[in-house]
Design a protein that fits this description.
Blueprint lengths: L1 H22 L9 H14 L3 H6 L8 E5 L4 E5 L7 H6 L3 E7 L2 E8 L3 H50 L16 H56 L3 H27 L12 E4 L1 H10 L14 E4 L1 H18 L4 E8 L2 E8 L31 H11 L3 E7 L3 E9 L3
Antiparallel strand pairs: 1-2, 1-4, 3-4, 5-6, 7-8, 8-10, 9-10
Helix pairs in contact: 1-5, 6-7, 7-9, 8-9, 9-10
């Protein structure tokens, strides 16, 4: 920057000195007074024989024009001379009257060519100034491009990479006194972000592993309770006790489903969740709904007979999620219907609770999203999210529909086996 300032100031000084030298040049009349006096004296003596007078003055370099009393040219010495007064004024010519016997007989105009030399010098210096300032502007543009524009462009590209999460591209030090330290600070920030991201990933991994381990450990005692309850249901003679044990079995089934959801949510990503779709008879779906409905809220229904591509284990998890959500947020009768729609078996599961707002329907399958009407209820916002992922993994679809204050419906499209 210092060199740039020095060069710029030097160019301005050169320009100022040049202007001073031009305007300080003596531009006054350069006509030789001695020669002018001889010309005046000779022409006056020879008047009106001007040609003879001029022939006797050939040794002088001074140029002049001789006019009569009416302003007409009657003689001249020089080339391409003009006699108008505008020319005389601009070129600083001066004239002398010829007086004989008290009367003005004519006039001599002496030509001053010094103004032409000055004009030529000014033209040359004007071009030189233009060249100097053009050079200065080019230097400014080059300097700004190298030391400002290119560094800013590089920093902007790097910032976009950071915003996109790409932290692997280092920022080389920019050779600029302004952006050099700044670029180094940016690269240090990038390294710190990489380190922070790594620590966050490690902490998240430990948290997930811990919760997955706990959920796995809980499964065993729950399975034991369920097994004992199922055994007692089969062996007891008391109808009352059989009903109580049946409730225990249903509750343990619900707890198992919740643990499965928790374990699933702790996976690093859902791609690790295995889904094995095989051609399965549709009565498995009906059975899954009956197992999930331990409160017996579902009205009588039948699923159309067909073969669908589903995972038998995951379809139970999906129905547990949907029915448990209905218990939690609506706790009304549940209506199940089925029909064929193109290459799909479409299953509608509908309750008659408060539903959700229309604008919230598209967000219900997002992770951790919960509708405004569900804020007072406990929940994680994972049930529909996981269910939709599982359905998609079976090449199916899941959609939510609602009319606030009247009903809520989930539709499943399950691919028919070819």
């Amino acid at each position: 920057m210092k060199r740039f300032i020095i060069i710029t100031v030097s160019l301005y000084l050169i320009a100022c000195v040049s202007l001073i030298s031009i305007f300080s040049t003596d531009t006054s009349n350069k006509i030789k007074n001695t020669e002018a006096n001889d010309v005046i004296f000779t022409i006056k003596n020879y008047w009106p024989d001007i040609n003879n007078a001029i022939s006797n003055l050939q040794e002088y370099e001074i140029e002049y024009i001789v006019l009569d009393a009416e302003g007409k040219e009657i003689g001249a010495f020089g080339q391409n001379l003009k006699t108008d007064y505008t020319y005389n004024y601009i070129h600083k010519d001066y004239s002398v009257d010829i007086i004989k016997e008290g009367e003005i007989c004519g006039k001599i105009i002496f030509i001053n060519h010094e103004d032409n030399e000055l004009r030529n010098r000014i033209g040359v210096w004007a071009l030189l100034f233009l060249a100097i300032f053009l050079l200065k502007d080019l230097l400014v543009v080059f300097y700004l491009k190298k030391h400002v524009f290119l560094p800013v462009q590089k920093m902007n590209t790097f910032a976009q990479q950071i915003a996109n999460g790409n932290l692997d591209i280092p920022v080389n030090r920019i050779a600029s006194s302004y952006f050099g330290a700044f670029s180094e600070s940016f690269d240090i920030m990038r390294e710190e972000l990489i380190y922070a991201k790594k620590r966050e990933q490690e902490a998240d991994k430990l948290r997930r592993e811990m919760i997955a381990s706990i959920s796995h450990d809980i499964k065993n005692p729950v399975a034991s309770i369920q097994a004992v309850a199922e055994y007692q249901c089969l062996t007891t003679d008391s109808d009352e006790l059989r009903q109580e044990f049946q409730i225990i079995v249903e509750k343990t089934n619900q707890i198992s489903g919740m643990i499965a959801n928790l374990h699933t949510s702790m996976l690093n990503d859902l791609d690790r969740l295995e889904v094995n779709s095989v051609a399965t008879e549709s009565y498995v779906i009906e059975k899954a709904l009956h197992h999930a409905d331990f409160k017996r809220k579902i009205k009588d229904f039948t699923i159309l007979e067909c073969l669908v591509m589903i995972d038998k284990v995951r379809i139970h998890q999906i129905m547990d999620n949907i029915i448990s959500n209905s218990y939690k947020y609506a706790d009304t009768e549940i209506e199940v219907m089925s029909h064929f729609e193109g290459e799909y078996l479409c299953i509608s599961i509908k309750d008659f609770g408060s539903g959700v707002k229309k604008e919230e329907e598209v967000f219900l399958a997002q992770k951790y999203f919960r509708g405004q009407n569900a804020k007072e209820k406990e929940g994680s916002g994972l049930g529909i999210y996981i269910s939709e992922y599982l359905i998609k993994s079976m090449d199916g679809k899941l959609r939510c529909y609602s009319e606030e204050g009247k009903w809520f419906e989930i539709k499943l499209w399950l691919l028919l086996a070819s």
